[in-house]
Amino acid sequence: MDILRRVGVPEYRITDWRKKQVEIWLSDGREDGSVCPYPCNTVTEADREELRPVMFPWLEITYEEQSDPGQ
Rounded CA gap, 15 and 43, in Å? Predict the structure, then answer.
C-alpha cells in the first residue's frame, strides 16, 4: 500500500480470499503534496454490485467465487 501511495495510484483494491471480501481504497492529495489513502468500501458477495471501480464506473468487474488457492 505504501508503494501505491508513493507513486500516486488513486484507487486500488485489497482482496482477502479468506474473508471473501475486497477492500476498495482511494487516495486524496493534501495541500502539502502528500497523498492520504483511505478505505472507501468493503465489498462482499452480498453487495457485489458495488465492486465497480470508483475512478472508472463504466468498467465492469465481477465477483465470482473461485476455489480456495490453498487446496
Answer: 9
Q: Is residue 25's pLDDT more than 60?
A: yes
Domain assignment present for residue 6? The answer is yes
Which amino acid is residue 55, in one-letter code? M
Q: Are 53 and 59 in contact (CB under 8 A)?
A: yes
Q: What is the pTM of this model?
A: 0.65
Q: Give bridge partners of residue 26 from the DSSP assignment.
A: 11, 38
Range of the domain at 11: 2-51
Residues in the chain: 71
DSSP, collapsed to helix, strand or coil, labels residue 42 as strand
The Cα-based distances of 37 to 6, 10, 18, 59 in angstroms read 10, 8, 23, 22
